[in-house]
Amino acid sequence: MQVKNLTVNRLCQNQVITAANGSLPGPTLRVKEGEWWNANPIDVENAALANGTAPVISDAYTINGWPGDQFNSCRPSNIYRLDVVPGKTYLLRIINAALNGQFFFKIANHNLTVVGVDAAYTNPFQTDVVVIGPGQTTDVLLTANQSPGLYYMAAHPYASAAGVPFNANTTTAILAYKKAASQTKPILPVLPAFNDTPTAFAFSSNLTGLVTSPFWSQVPQTVDEDMLITIGLGLSVCGGSNQTCGGIFGQRMSASMNNHSFVLPTRMSILEAFFRNVSGVYTTDFPNQPPLIFDYTNVNNSFNPGLLMTPKLTSVKKVKFNSTVQVVFQNTALVGVEDHPMHLHGFNFYVLAQGFGNYDPTTDTRKFNLVNPQERNTLGVPVGGWAVIRFRANNPGVWFIHCHLDVHLPWGLATAFLVENGGTPESTLPPPPADFPRC
Asked: Which three-class secondary structure string do you get for the chain?
């Protein structure tokens, strides 16, 4: 995220920032994708929240802080350049640091081998495209095995929501072979279409965990808490009778999980209230099932007034220490269908299965991978589909779970797991430090 003192003039300077990485052990390189606003992003978000609508879209995308020379508003502009040695293999740690952008990422004429996601090892998976949502990381091996020359690294949005505006620019960096011929124009990869959900799903659903990793733990085979959580957008009441907001039907845009639209407490944090046993800050009545069963992914329900309104609540789910929690995230078509990258704090989870349509416990449980599922902390729930995760609640405290699209978080697409203390000092939440700040 770039702030307002980095002006568009600097964004569009003609400059190449070079990384000479041939001497790095490994070598390991970081490729950070991001978004750029020609304003303070906090001001952008606050303006949208005040009006009850979505924030304005970003002005550019970046790779390692620079938009590249395909940026429509100013050419040439800043571009990151990575020099590689022919024959060497590099570990690229690809990070999506954007607020609202999910991306397709490719390197022209090069295949990549995925070896890790969200700091957990995967079985090697060969691909020519990486799909990455906000907050996700993907580790890939890149072998410099092509003809010496210049090749673009490029990324543009995976825009899964139909009819929602987005910046259609492509951000680029340059992969440059040392001692290459005097090539002046890099080769540009062909990126998938913005709405290419089959490619996004194929990438996500083909990743598996590396069970020979020293950090691998077997998947819990029994479940203590079995939850079905609907996720999606909705509306909340604008305000006074004479007030009109910028959301659909003049209301305030909202989002929810099981029709509970999460609102942060203002008096004290949930964690402090839990530790000090203070009542009235939160409730523990977040439901294991949606309050209403309907055809979740039927687009005919998108603007059903009986389904759109979401109450604002600070409700969490309480679970016992070391219990096994299974969550079926069920996407809905309310307002529109899109991919929601769901992120869990405090834990990694196993991704047991993913699919499209409404989850069917009778048939879809047969698809569960209980042997070597991918392990991660952020997962894109497929457009108009579902995903099943499982984790062991062995970390006491209060842990946020939410959509990692920043536009949806303040709208309420969140809740928290309150994990009770265990029976030992090691499994008990420690007291706050002596210098703990007080409101």
From this structure: CCCCCCCHHHHCCCCEEEEECCCCCCCEEEEEEEEECCCCHHHHHHHHHHHCCCCCCCCEEEECCECCCCCCCCCCCCEEEEEECCCCEEEEEEEECCCCCCEEEEECCCCEEEEEECCEEEEEEEECCEEECCCCEEEEEEECCCCCCEEEEEEEECCCCCCCCCCCCCEEEEEEECCCCCCCCCECCCCCCCCCHHHHHHHHHCCEECCCCCCCCCCCCCCCEEEEEEEEEEEECCCCCCCCCCCHHHCEEEEEECCEEECCCCCCCHHHHHHHCCCCCCECCCCCCCCCCCCCCCHHHCCCHHHHECCEECECEEECCCEEEEEEEEECCCCCCCCEEEEECCCCEEEEEEEECCCCCCCHHHHCCCCCECEECEEEECCCEEEEEEEEECCCEEEEEEECCCCCCCCCCEEEEEECCCCCHHHCCCCCCCCCCCC
Q: What's the mean per-residue pLDDT of the chain? A: 91
Is residue 6 included in any domain, yes or no? no
Residues 240 and 173 in one domain: no
* Number of compact structural domains in the chain: 2
| 164 within a domain of the structure (yes/no) | yes
Quick: pLDDT tens for 385-394: 999 999 999 9
Considering the chain, what percentage of its residues have pLDDT values greater than 70?
Answer: 92
- pLDDT beyond 90 at 26: no
- Please indicate, yes or no, if residue 397 is contained in any of the structural domains: yes
The answer to whether position 250 is within a domain reads yes
Q: Does residue 90 share a domain with residue 117?
A: yes
- CB-CB neighbours of 61 under 10 Å: 24
Which pLDDT score is estimated for 222?
97
Q: What is the pLDDT of residues 235-278, one digit of tens each?
A: 999 987 778 899 999 999 999 999 999 999 998 999 999 999 99
In this prediction, residue 372 carries a pLDDT of: 98
Domain containing 258: what range?
Answer: 225-427
Tell me what pLDDT residue 1 has.
Answer: 34
Whether residues 100 and 142 fall in one domain: yes
Looking up residue 51, the CATH number of its domain turns out to be: 2.60.40.420
Mean pLDDT calculated for residue range 204-213: 97
Residue 22 vs residue 109, higher pLDDT:
109
pLDDT of residue 74: 57
pLDDT at 12 over 70: no
